[in-house]
Amino acid sequence: VSNNYWMLFEMRGDNTDQGPDQTGLAQKIALLNQFEETTTNELVQQAWIDTYDGIERCNVILDQLDNLPDGAFKDQVQGEALFLRSLFYYHAAVAWGNITLKTEATTGPDEAANVADQTDASAVYQQIAGDLETAQGLLPARYESEADAYKATSGAANALLGKVYLTMGQQGDAETALQRVIDSGEYSLVPNYGDLWGPENENNAESIFEVHYTTTSGEGSPFTNTFAPDVAAVPGEVGEGLAENRPTLSMENAYLDENGPRFRASMDTSYVDNEEVTKARYITKYESRPFANFEAENNWIMLRYADVLLMMAEAVGLSQRGWDLIDQVRDRSLPDPQFDVDRSGDTESFYRQLLRERRVELAFENHRWPDLKRFQQYPGMESVAFDRVSDELGGVTQNNFNLLYPIPQREVDVADLGQNSGYAGGGGGS
Prior knowledge:
Shape: globular
Strand content: 5-15%
Distance between the termini: 25 Å
Order of helices and strands: HEHHHEEHHHEHEHHEEEHHHHHH
């Protein structure tokens, strides 16, 4: 999974911005937050490359399945490959919309049959849904070996499937997929929100799928250092902090209780360096003691049970069950009655409160931008993504607000792909 996804899916929304440094490479990051990236932005291009590298590897595995004997292991390999390819395609469809849909491995540069045409995002989601329906029937509910704990399960396939169905506007199908996760009995909310984070809490009861990082092979996580405040040491001896992906002021204000467990585990507003207190907002979810700079052990939680419960509330909509699902997540972190949800509102009020709950519960986990786009399908929520641009940036209007990233110019030139609307001559588009 691309290390650049946090730029495309977290910082694009109202949760974070680039931070104080907007020079050099950091300027290219800032442009993503400001909706001013160009078709040659190397960060968008690298995300595209990483995504399609992952898709190609999955296709190679799927094309070789006939070399395996029939049985549980073959089913598992097929299910894992379909899940991972679906995960890559989900990110690609959210980011770029009309993309190359390729389901066979490339075996040579001259094989025209392996060069796919550009495909509308709706067809991509249909492909993903079909693949995940297959995968969830092939994958085991759990793995007995601790060494296999990071592999995809049927729960992971169904959780992602529910997210895809919601994106497609198929709430009934989403409810069916998400109910499989709930009924499996494999997952539960951990009692303490702070116990979700850090290498010591990997693959906990709430975690459904994590991106695995390890320093033993030089494949450590860069996020501890990337998100740490500038100059300030992250916990431990290694402490090069880039101060990127800085929480916005509106993100800070979104928490109802700044002394609550979600705020304390997610972000901070000051740090101590050489006994001097410096005011700065920064992410704390990925703090640890890295083996070396940009080589931390922290996994990235891609799917977890709280997300499933909130997606189920989204699927069932305004109802007693919908509110109860929201409360189930909120009550872990906000048990005080003064924070009770106002249930007197209409459908729009329900979805606004649900979207806010998703924001603070899943902050800095790469859900915000897809959420802002998806929630526009609900009554009264059509302008919610545009509202955040007005609030955070000022002067950016719907006319120059891009719901899709530009397809990298390299792909347009080499693969003869059509550019997303509005990018060829600058300005907006959807």
